[in-house]
């Protein structure tokens, strides 16, 4: 009893000290304010437990060693909180890892006290601390968005990277290599059901030193989705391997002829073409890519057997030993700590996964840190259930169980299901997901909770989150460079689970139209209007029919995916009075020309609009009629003269509620319309990778509420307008890789709120204006070594300044890509 009382006092004391330290740091630090506020809410919810002895006594009935270790953990947590103000915003690694340590602390508090927090989204479980540290080490600062995008396109036929941990494929690799090199057939197919690791095995083969020695740089890797045409594949190969750009192929026969002609010119060079994930309906594509060229091999991965095309290598499941190893890696912490789960349960779980790598990794991740009861419950469900796809596949049944494991995180589960809104085998921008989820689930507009959802799903191997260029100098939650990929089997699972209810009752309606094959229910539509909040419609390059009417009054998010050169907006969009977010994306090699854009002018509730890789016309001025629009994103769009109408036809009051404008990789943008300066509520302006932009409006300083200004990699932009000194709320300015910038205006010293300035790659700057000595709030300058010398003269005037020198290799990498 005495020991319990002592522990009770110690627990109360250390928790109170942690609460006080958290409250203090919320006031003192900017970097971790969102996470600290959440931690403070958790501590506030815990507080009643501390003062109700009966509840606290139940907690203290746990083993003394566990309570003692938890108290030590809280003391370390107090130190962790106090260290927040010591970590500067330019420290990429420490800021990222420290944030996740705080999230881990919040999770441990919730778990120990078993408090039912009011805000479920705030108790999203994270990876273990060690795994997060490991993730932090992998995050690299890469090229700018345009460089990254150019790299994606230029290397889109290159072999993807290997997973971090591979087990059980050595024998398969040796045998597959032997068959590929010795077999007389030109085509070799690696065949197995989904989740067996076909793609992983083929990646290993392509990265094998012997294979690279034989084929050199002539290993071409193409992912073939169900809707990919022969023309699309050939255009990609011609553009990204043979550097034949702007080659518009009229027919499949034309594509076939041009590719054969290029290959025949290679002489004695050997070539390996990898076609990953070929579906049965695409079998003819393999036949079309066969040419009588010496040394030319085609390696195919497919869930199907193509017995009439070449040879087949059938991939088998992992043996028991390898399956156990992979499962242990997925479920147990890498720091060696013990998890109290009986060995027999582990063996039963491994056996239930049937040796399938995807099932072992996904199920293992979903059980990480779970109690024995959770393990037994999951096994019981498996023994009683049936396949979700009306088959006997244990893998698919297991995958459903991994999604069911998100029952205590309903928003995260919904986010997983939403991923079925995007085309197969395509990258999904994290910022596009943020736009959806902010409106559907009322997540924070800064994006931190979006990243948490993605991290949670990634930790369970339900998606792959690629942090393309995590930069801790960026404001919290910035995720424009992050993107998501997903195994197509998991995408199918999301679509299937979203389609269980009758059509009128579904929360999300995910429609894929091939050619002009409109679903029969849509044509008839004899039932009441659909009640979906999320509507996604995907059409291929051959879609040309008129839209049928669709009654969808409750839709809040509309995702339109196209591959066609011309895309006509559906007429029913004008009746979606509750629409809050609109995403229109072209996934073709050529930007899609957007027609009937004025239909959106009636969308009075629209808050977020994202257009990606589309050809705009002056009709874009109809966007000006959207009185409640808060965020507009134009990504890789062809602007042409679309902005000309802004000065003549736009209304007197221009987008009165717009707070964020993002223009990225719009390569033909030369000037911004002067009326952009009328957007008085604008808080974030991001114009990046627009290489033809040569001037900014003189009245830019009228944007009095602007807090963030990104001009990254606008390579022809020579100067900033003098009016920039009027932006007294500006906290973050990025002019990095503005290669033509030769001077900063004297008025830059009037930016008394500026905290972070990024300017690496501004090689034209010979000096800084003396007024920079007045930037009293400046905390970080991120620049190259040459520019750092210019700032060193002002360090004595700017006492809080930290000069962070970054390696200036991005321009060199960019020149390699475009050269």
TrEMBL record:
<dbReference type="InterPro" id="IPR002182">
    <property type="entry name" value="NB-ARC"/>
</dbReference>
<protein>
    <recommendedName>
        <fullName>RPW8 domain-containing protein</fullName>
    </recommendedName>
</protein>
<feature type="domain" description="RPW8">
    <location>
        <begin position="1"/>
        <end position="151"/>
    </location>
</feature>
<dbReference type="InterPro" id="IPR027417">
    <property type="entry name" value="P-loop_NTPase"/>
</dbReference>
<keyword id="KW-0611">Plant defense</keyword>
<dbReference type="InterPro" id="IPR032675">
    <property type="entry name" value="LRR_dom_sf"/>
</dbReference>
<dbReference type="InterPro" id="IPR008808">
    <property type="entry name" value="Powdery_mildew-R_dom"/>
</dbReference>
<keyword id="KW-0433">Leucine-rich repeat</keyword>
<dbReference type="Pfam" id="PF05659">
    <property type="entry name" value="RPW8"/>
</dbReference>
<dbReference type="Pfam" id="PF00931">
    <property type="entry name" value="NB-ARC"/>
</dbReference>
<dbReference type="InterPro" id="IPR036388">
    <property type="entry name" value="WH-like_DNA-bd_sf"/>
</dbReference>
<dbReference type="InterPro" id="IPR042197">
    <property type="entry name" value="Apaf_helical"/>
</dbReference>
<dbReference type="GO" id="GO:0006952">
    <property type="term" value="P:defense response"/>
</dbReference>
<dbReference type="GO" id="GO:0043531">
    <property type="term" value="F:ADP binding"/>
</dbReference>
<keyword id="KW-0677">Repeat</keyword>
<comment type="similarity">
    <text>Belongs to the disease resistance NB-LRR family.</text>
</comment>
